[in-house]
Amino acid sequence: MNDFLDVFPEEVPGLPSSREPEFSIDFVSRVGLVSIAPYRMAPTELVELKKQIEELIWEEHEDHLRTVLGVLRERKLYAKLSKCEFWMEEVHFLGHVISARGISVDPAKVQAVFQWERPKTVTEVRSFVGLAGYYRRFIENFSRIVVSLTLLTRKDQPFVWTDWCETSFQELKQRLTSAPVLVIPDTGKPFEGFCDASHQGLRCVLIQEKKVVAYASRGIT
Fold it and tell me: Can you give the pTM of this predicted structure?
């Protein structure tokens, strides 16, 4: 840290200038979904591979840390040292858990969702939909699932909790409590985007190296 003390000033000297995005995703039309059987490995080989990966991770971590801090210095971006943690295997950040495996929903939020009682007012519906919407990139077809609850929040819509609402509520809870781990995107590698559209909505999934980066969807009403 002594080599990068200028990255952790007591007072921030100012904001960096606005910059254009430095990457883009090129889509390929009419590409089929990836469907390949998973590669199997002998248990002894898998144990040895995990051991080697663990050694490489720790050996390279300092180099990666220097690279990140070097970029912050180059771009005149700053961090508060008391808010930083180093040599962590996983980090809790804004309701997410970030680790070498990828990005997952914070277990504390999962527990809150699991214990959430059925909404009885529009305000309670908005609160639940707001929490669920924050994690919508973890949920495939989110907009389709949430549509019945969204309709309840309209001013011209009487509050009537139907079987459709209950089904949507329970499905969202189930999806959130079993949300997948999303891969951390690498802007230096290619992405694949798969899209679909219907009269009810739009949906897509962003993939990198056959792993999900994020889901996205939007209803058409």
Answer: 0.58
- pLDDT tens, 33-50? 666 666 677 888 888 887
Judge if 166 and 66 occupy the same domain: no
Q: Is 129 exposed, middle or buried (0-12, 13-18, 19+ CB in 10 A)?
A: buried
For the residues of 22-77, what is the DSSP string, one character each?
A: S------TT-PPP--PPPP--HHHHHHHHHHHHHHHHHHHHHHHHHHHHHHHHTT-
Identity at 21, one-letter amino acid code: P
- Domain ranges, residue 48: 2-18+37-87
For the chain, where are the E strands, in sequence order? 90-93, 96-99, 102-105, 192-197, 201-208, 211-219
Rounded Cα distance, 174 and 172, in Å: 5
Q: Tell me the per-residue pLDDT of 45-67, one tens digit each, with 9 for 90 and over.
A: 888 887 777 777 677 777 888 88
Q: Are residues 181 and 116 in the same domain?
A: yes
